[in-house]
Amino acid sequence: MTDERVARAGLTRLTEPGELRVTGAVAGAGAVALYDQLIAVAGDQELAQDTRPRLDRLDPARELEQAAARGIRFVIPSDDEWPHQLDDLAHSAPVQSMGGPPLGLWVRGPLRLDEIGGAVSVVGSRAATTYGEAVAREIGAGLARAGRCVVSGAAFGIDQAAHRGALALDGASVAVLACGVDRAYPAAHRDLLAHLATVGAVVSELPPGCAPLRMRFLARNRIIAALTRGTVLVEAAIRSGALNTASWATSLSRPLMGVPGPVTSAQSQGVHLRVTEGAAVLVTGPADVLELVGDAGEHLQEIPRAPEQPRDRLSTRHRRVLEAVPLRQAAGLGAIATTAGIELLATQTALGYLAEHGFVLRADSGWRLGPRAAPHLADP
Amino acid sequence: MTDERVARAGLTRLTEPGELRVTGAVAGAGAVALYDQLIAVAGDQELAQDTRPRLDRLDPARELEQAAARGIRFVIPSDDEWPHQLDDLAHSAPVQSMGGPPLGLWVRGPLRLDEIGGAVSVVGSRAATTYGEAVAREIGAGLARAGRCVVSGAAFGIDQAAHRGALALDGASVAVLACGVDRAYPAAHRDLLAHLATVGAVVSELPPGCAPLRMRFLARNRIIAALTRGTVLVEAAIRSGALNTASWATSLSRPLMGVPGPVTSAQSQGVHLRVTEGAAVLVTGPADVLELVGDAGEHLQEIPRAPEQPRDRLSTRHRRVLEAVPLRQAAGLGAIATTAGIELLATQTALGYLAEHGFVLRADSGWRLGPRAAPHLADP
């Protein structure tokens, strides 16, 4: 009988990631049984016929050895390193006819996948704006500061910005690829991927050497969502692939978070749409994200408040009298009482209190504003 | 017995707008009884004492005449022109210890207040950004296009931009002031207010001549919210007065809508906070606003969709084969079948279909991409 790891490695070579007929068969008969059927060109007629052209140079045992020699390991569900959050994919609804847990993950890099349980994915447009990249970088950095791993793809725009934000703070970061972990796609990110493979992890369902194909990105997106506690959508146009990752977060019942942007920016349109639909929760920075993915009470956030003004402490009556003191010149007691709509004696008492606390000053002709009164009149 | 209109006009001179003890007494004994008590310095001890300094030059009957001569009318609840949506203030919770319907509204301008039932308020920061002003203008224009009246204050920033957007399309627009309708505050908006008084309406609870005071803005905000079907918050810093108007919309159970902006902009912070708290619904333009304030089905909005690509119509199988055709050179049938993970004969059939529809072309050495295949490989 074939070894479990060899069978799973072989299956990643024979089949495409996220194929429901494959993940279904593995969940049923097991990876070894399916692999043995496919190499015997038996079993499920269509699947065996489809994988047949790939049988020619198939040698997963040797491939595992060669990968190991190049520092690439193949992590499977029975390994200690297996990130069990991926198992939720067995129960989540398919997205675009794909789904199921991966057969295994090919991994380059020192980061152990069983140690990124609190990870958060940060995804978005390749054609990101300067604004989007800055926010992604800040969220990446904020997650790193909180000891959270960042998970993303390796694309231009939001993906790279999120990684760079985490790396700048020596945080853990994982790139999930839609091609072999030995390939650099896009080529311009060769150094970024090499760096992630040195300090974090570069991960793929596809065996080394595989090329990136459109449908492999769709399958890859479910890994990004499933590896993490929640997905932050930083920028996404209406047709952005990041919205597919977003759908995976929703399918997995994990928080989907959207960063708002100018309504005039096409790159924020997809995010705003998810928020108005109620699929995504609006977040404005790492603190919001941590609150949403944290264990209860772990990241309780202080609600931003404006600095209190001295006048905020005044009673309604004292404030009314203060506001009746003109902005530029002094006024007499009678005039102030009339404007305030407060009786003369009470106005006088209030002015005494306000003078004592620096809000008004006694002047020859009555009272004028004191140093603590500012800011005085404003459309409040 | 004093005439109802005279009593109410007198009360707007004697008391401050939104005072709960005043609106409570009017709801109980009626405006005439309260007015007669106050001019006799009788009844509720404290209120009568407070209004006493204002009795000196009180002559509401003459004031009504003088106002009329200047084109200013005083609209009260028994008038046909009374906008009955204001009556909801009798049942809404106080905000910052203010509340209740106004005693009446002093009005300048040809627009009848009983004809703005579908109005929407557009409010926000005085210190708005160029972005915020552009969005406010667009929303003002979009409301005008839909035959909706715009209601706002008269401040710099969002207020004026919303009015200008509506006015540019000859729409109805109403400015609600925290001072007399004969005053221009801010002075720089003298022309804008004059224009609104010519084509729309300038409205205040305060009688002519009254100065703008901070607490009068707070009272004024409830009129803005109550006159309208919903309130759009375009930009608001954490301490913006527009958030007070927002609280009024909530207190009145009317939709509060927030326009998102860059998370890096302090002027959007208050809006984002209201959205994350769940108090405001995110809106990205006039279409969203109209959908939220419209009668059911009146403004059903088409959800934005990206233009469909020809490849979107392909079956999963055909797409898989198409994606296995390399980007730059031709490939043989075997190579394509292996990459696609689809059996040889099925791959050949698919390629035939794809060629027929322009997705691939037959080449000497096999197949290459055709004109309809673009955009091909992308992080989708």
Polypeptide structure, described:
The structure is a homodimer of 380-residue chains. With 380 residues, chain A is of the alpha/beta class. Chain A folds into three domains: 1-65, no CATH class; 70-293, Rossmann fold (3-Layer(aba) Sandwich), CATH 3.40.50; 310-373, Orthogonal Bundle (Arc Repressor Mutant, subunit A), CATH 1.10.10. Chain A is 41% helix and 11% strand. Chain A has helices at 4-14, 20-28, 31-39, 45-51, 60-69, 130-145, 158-168, 190-199, 214-226, 242-251, 266-276, 286-293, 316-324, 333-340, 344-356; strands at residues 72-75, 105-108, 120-123, 150-152, 173-177, 201-204, 231-233, 256-258, 281-282, 360-363, 366-369. Chain A has a nine-stranded mixed sheet, sandwiched between helices. In chain A, β10 and β11 form a beta hairpin. In chain A, α1 (4-14) crosses α5 (60-69) and α6 runs parallel beside α7. The longest helix of chain A has 16 residues, at 130-145. The radius of gyration of chain A is 30 Å and the shape is elongated. The first copy, chain A, starts with a helix and ends in an 11-residue tail after the last strand. At the A-B interface, α4, α6, α9, α11 and β9 of A face α4, α6, α9, α11 and β9 of B.
